[in-house]
Amino acid sequence: MLKKSIFLLFGLLIMFSLPSLTAFANEEIEEVPLTEEEIAQLKNNVGLTDEMINDLPITELRILIEEGSVLEFHQAEVIDIFEPEVFNPGEFKPMQGGDLDPKKIKITGYAFYNGKKTSGTYSGYRQYKLVGNWEWLTAPSWYLTDGFSVGWGSTDLKLPTRNNAVDEFWGYYYRYDGTKKTWYLTSSTRNPNTYEPNGGVGYKFDLRGGLTRHKGSLTQYVYTRASRGDINVKFEYGHAQMVGATVTFGKNAGSFGIAPTFGVKTGYAADEIVW
Known about the structure:
Strand content: over 45%
Oligomer: single chain
Radius of gyration: 21 Å
Strand order of the largest sheet: 1-11-10-14-6-5-2
Low-confidence stretches: 1-26, 87-100
Distance between the termini: 70 Å
CATH class: Mainly Beta
Number of strands: 18
CATH topology: Immunoglobulin-like
CATH architecture: Sandwich
Structural class: alpha+beta
């Protein structure tokens, strides 16, 4: 009788807990601001500036401190995108060259050196963390499915895999609350849409209508055991500008990225890892 009572009580606890667990899973995550001590560590140990600290997700910044990462490179580009103007659902005006004010998107690429691995599959390899950010500085006209990628043209950088899938990848999407002046993490994924073996990864996301500011990022760890080398790394954004346009990934000019496609505008930031 006592056992039955215990099981009944346990079942009731689970039943009443489920709604709150479900609600929590669907809630957006507000990032806790950095402390002054954390900001000092990011500047003095990691090598970031105030601009870089404001650019990167707070979650990522705390991981950089924890891992003892050191900035290898930082490259930022602001891209002008001339968009077909939407004036009725399903219709658009053709682009008028320079007659329309361009939309602007900022693409930022980072590489961090995390030292040599001392255990596991990649023991003895140098570990780098590649972090790419994109942010619409002016709201786009088209809210379709866009894509973001990081790619390189040398097999010296190894892409970790597990169970025939890319490992150590994260993709994030944020929205901005103008009232609270705070970014909220609204979705994340551990699975890129596609990858090139030892060449790069890409993932897609739906731009959310009704938002004035959009921001996202990707993180991918890579490894090399070459004693010396230099590799160009490219972070590329693909923006669909009409219904039916599809962002695709592939090799272009020797490096993985956004494939040239009708109705898709691209922009990128690139730099070099040297060791």
